[in-house]
Design brief:
Length: 213
Amino acid sequence: MELFKLLIYLAKKGATYKEIELSTIRIAEDNSASQQTISRNLIGLEKDSLIERLASTKGIKIRLTAKGIESLKSIHHALSSIFEKKIQSFKGKIESGLGEGAYYVSLEPYARQFREKLGIVPYSGTLNIRVNYSQFLQFAASQQEVKISGFKQAGRTFGSIVAYRIRISSTDAAIIIPERTSHERDIIEVIAESNLRKKFSLKDNDEITLEPR
């Protein structure tokens, strides 16, 4: 692990496309390590044919080899497949709520922002959907979140909301995640311009697919 950390450091310094000149003192300081550790790791990188090095008057001249560059590309590819994996859709099951959504969605400061930021003039109610939480997080990570600001009204403070634009059966909608909620984390609320339950004749436990828009 130390060797690859040092290899990444050298790449950041420009050793992937040109020969760079550094002292072991400087490398040690930048990596919070001892000179002995850096010298040992440089020997290890050279032994594995990941770098080429040559003594100079100012320290050492270093350049990554083709093998060293390919090793970094392999690491980048592996990490990208983990962190940049995008989920294009996910499913959930309809669940009855407490009916509180209608009140909050109808509040003008929220309704105005839904209209301006999400392009939705919402029906006065939300559709509750139980989802696989890890799938939802994966989906959300690949989408652009929309921030709905909180506000104060009639002596009460209403929290902010994070929203994600989606479609359900070609109907524009949005997932809304209130800053303050009584729902379990695997229950999400969806708003749309129509009553989605009636539009699609949905009943509790019916499965639907949510897609990005």
